[in-house]
Amino acid sequence: MSVIYDRVALIGLGLIASSLFWAIKRGGLVGEVTGYARSAETRDTARRIGLCDRVCDSMADAVDGADLVILAVPVGVMGAVAAEIAPALKPGATVTDVGSVKRDVIDTVAPHLPDTVHFVPGHPLAGTEHSGPESGFAELFDDRWCLLVPPDGTDPAAIARLRALWEGVGSNVEEMDADHHDLVLAVTSHAPHLIAYTMVGVADDLRRVTDSEVIKYSAAGFRDFTRIAASDPTMWRDVFLTNKDATLEILGRFTEELFALQRAIRTGDGAHLHDYFTRTRAIRRGIIEAGQDTDAPDFGRVKKPS
Ligand code: NAP
Fold first, then answer.
1. Does ligand 1 have an atom closer than 6 angstroms to the CB of 73?
2. Which residue has the least CA distance to atom 12 on ligand 1?
3. CA 145 vs CA 35, 122, 131, 175, 300: distances in Å
């Protein structure tokens, strides 16, 4: 594959940025990748593991001369980061981000950027519950979606180039309106995370009366919630604070459905429960058919020989 950008700067060196770096290297997509993270500890780790061609000690140094700047920090600090890098941006450069919420990122980042740069916000729909510079891997974006949400009037050439980079790291790319993105993600990611956090929190309270049975018998379903509920607290705090309206809308609907199921259980309405679970099972099949998860039982977990 040919080089898409001569120089790319990664701001933030966690799970997403490190995965991007390894995937960019795998594809030979960029001439030089510079990187910056807030703490000296993360920058030292990055240097030790060879994450980035050059790790810089300031954001300005990292973005100096970059054709593409990728903001890979928690959503809540995107605006402050944009303000800091703005004076150092090269005219004609593209700024993008990987934040899980899009309207808030556009509202907080765009006002800081000079007219001489293109702003093409993005969101890779790929991740794990791990974080930090050592958690990344080149395959993270393979066959996953990356949504680009360019504001009206964005230069089509800048969008096409960024699309080529995401396709080069293995993603399928689609463009979407920011508000629509935030609603879709509230359904598919944000509300499920909140529900998982709640379920694990409830179980943790119960654990005190059941003497560790919740942990011992977690394979019955609970452990799948715990994986999601182990996700980074800073990232998820910011997601809920910045995608407030869409998340509350979906949680309202969720609560109504929960009450309906609660009522069906109380009144012994087995038909309602059966119909509901039949419908949800079909959704799982659709995800597998779309190649977005494994068909293997129990998510393909390897069983130890007994
Ligand atoms: P992460 O592993 O926790 O890494 C975050 C990085 O941001 C770290 O390098 C951190 O530096 C840096 N950082 C934090 N605050 C900063 C600040 N004030 N100024 C400069 N740098 C700062 O996070 P991640 O999972 O890669 O997530 C990054 C972004 O991707 C988030 O916006 C998230 O919403 C989005 N995203 C995440 C996932 C996922 O599943 N994790 C999926 C899609 C999109 P230090 O290490 O020095 O603190």
1. yes
2. 12
3. 24, 11, 20, 10, 22
